[in-house]
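Okay, can you check this protein?
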Amino acid sequence: MLHFILELAFYRGILTGFNEAFVIDLATRDRLINEHSSSAEVIKPFLRGRDVKRWSVDYEDLYLIKIESSENIEHPWANKLEQEAEQIFTKRYPAIYKHFEQFRTQLIARSDQGRFFWELRSCKYWQEFEQPKIIIPAITNNVEYAPDSLGYYSNDKTSICIPKDINYTSGILNSALMWWFIQQIAASRQGGFFEFKPAYVSQIPIINATKTQRTAIEKLVQKCLDAKKCDRHADTSKLENAIDRLVYKLYQLTYDEIKIIDPEFKLTEQEYKAIKIE
């Protein structure tokens, strides 16, 4: 009998309500930190959905000004009236405050905000973005799961998953089997795209493998990650094909079932039967 892992946690990416103020480029980041060193405390590397690729990310030097809502963290200004709170914020992060001032009207008008206009909306899982995780673009035409151990934050066109074993789970999610599976359950878009929202991705059955089985997949995944780290355009198709074969075996698919999922499957039935993953 196959046993599956049920404890995967999924979280939606960050919604700022006004990206022009909260999402900045490298030049702006450097300027804000040069103006006042406190700015570095709240500037975090930031990804968009389009930056998330299979096995890796195409980081475009974007950053999030992360001012959490006073509903989630005890800022020095958290329990003050607005005028006093703003004065405290100004002294604590003067460069950030000056940056926000040019967008003051828009920041006040936005619906997605914290207790004060310079804060992001309430979010109870900020700390999860700092954890080793898997980043998932919201809409794509292939499996594009990217393991992340660098603490990227990401926008609302992504979600994140916090698995126990990142490389193993990434191998399963990026497999041909799970690409086929998501096409059966997810909402489709024009051009062969599918929605990879938590409501769909959370239905993917991650099998609870033995240590030996996990290690076999994890080694191949690490080779993919190493190749992409050296060259994000590196061809990892041979490694991915090897992962696919192990995943088929792990899920106990028959040869006929594989040919339905992957009509271009290269191995003969005898070659497939010879694969061992104990």
Notes: The chain has a mean pLDDT of 94. The first strand starts at residue 4 and ends at 5. The two ends are 15 Å apart (CA to CA). Residues 250 and 277 are 7 Å apart (CA to CA).
